[in-house]
């Protein structure tokens, strides 16, 4: 994205657009600000440098890379009350610089996978798997564009755990479905790209019910500690007009596979039982379509 275009973007989006060009030290500060964008408002340049473990000179260069004249100008802009640019606004702005090149598309998705794995913490992955494994019921939630990701996750989870609830269900009111949540349950919430008020509301209600909440979101979203027990963030930068969901799909596949291994024999028994049902019904083609 051209520099003059990037100057209109909020801080998290500027970081994501330039992340691949940052040095290792600069990425430490980038990761800190992506995790907590309020740090720019709350801390001085010196304090940010200390928290990121980098020099003040590196901090100054970092903000200049993002298109700010200085740290002070970045901090001043961050303190202004302004509505963040929606994913659709950012997407439309890509038309001027995007091109349909398959090689660039592949390279971008590879980078999305690599950067996502680099930034995911092993302790948070383990915590996510544990809360999924211990839950009596699993609630998979995805509104809008995230419905397809939620449906994919449920299709994997239902093969290894028996009680998987999908929200929303077409034609049914969400509060009535959600009313049976218990403190022994866990929720997998999908919040990639455009996030709805309904998603935040249902996550907050789950936390108030003492259920565990796992949020899978993108890097432009801060860790939502008030509405999620664990937040796992994926890089979704697209080389063209649309964002990529390669990293979220890969993460969901990994989580479900690791969960199956964690559950062990009961997951194997369920998979085998499902396969026997398919064989009895004869609904799987043995050859090509």
Indicate the radius of gyration in whole angstroms.
21 Å
Share of helix, binned:
40-55%
Kindly estimate the percentage of residues that lie in beta strands according to DSSP. Answer: 5-15%
Tertiary shape: globular
Give the oligomer, counting copies of the same chain as homo and different chains as hetero: single chain
Low-pLDDT residue intervals, each spanning 5 or more residues: 1-5
CATH fold-level label of the largest domain? Rossmann fold
Q: Structural class of the helix and strand makeup?
A: alpha/beta
CATH architecture of the largest domain: 3-Layer(aba) Sandwich
The fourth-level CATH homologous superfamily of the largest domain is Glucose-6-phosphate isomerase like protein, domain 1
Number of E-state strands: 5
Nearest-integer average pLDDT: 87
N- to C-terminal distance: 43 Å
Assigned CATH class of the largest domain:
Alpha Beta
Strand order in the largest sheet: 2-1-3-4-5
Helix count from the secondary structure assignment: 15
């Amino acid at each position: 994205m051209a520099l003059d275009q990037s100057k209109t973007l909020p801080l998290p989006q500027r970081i994501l657009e330039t992340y691949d060009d940052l040095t290792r030290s600069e990425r430490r500060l980038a990761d800190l600000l992506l995790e907590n964008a309020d740090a720019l408002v709350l801390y001085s340049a010196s304090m940010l440098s200390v928290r990121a473990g980098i020099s003040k000179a590196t901090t100054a260069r970092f903000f200049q890379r993002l298109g700010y004249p200085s740290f002070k100008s970045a901090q001043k802009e961050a303190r202004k009350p302004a509505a963040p640019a929606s994913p659709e606004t950012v997407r439309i702005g890509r038309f001027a610089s995007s091109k349909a090149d398959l090689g660039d598309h592949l390279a971008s998705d590879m980078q999305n996978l690599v950067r996502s794995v680099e930034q995911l913490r092993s302790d948070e992955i383990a915590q996510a798997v544990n809360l999924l494994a211990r839950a009596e019921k699993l609630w998979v939630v995805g509104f809008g564009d995230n419905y397809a990701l939620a449906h994919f996750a449920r299709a994997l989870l239902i093969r290894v755990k028996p009680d998987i609830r999908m929200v929303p269900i077409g034609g049914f009111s969400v509060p009535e479905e959600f009313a049976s949540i218990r403190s022994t349950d866990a929720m997998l919430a999908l919040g990639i790209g455009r996030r709805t008020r309904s998603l935040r509301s249902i996550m907050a209600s789950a936390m108030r019910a003492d259920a565990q909440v796992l949020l899978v979101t993108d890097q432009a979203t801060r860790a939502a500690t008030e509405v999620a027990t664990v937040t796992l963030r994926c890089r979704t930068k697209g080389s063209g007009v649309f964002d990529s969901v390669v990293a979220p799909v890969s993460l969901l596949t990994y989580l479900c596979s690791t969960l199956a291994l964690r559950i062990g024999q009961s997951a194997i028994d369920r998979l085998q039982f499902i396969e026997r049902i398919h064989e009895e019904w004869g609904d799987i083609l043995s050859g090509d379509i």
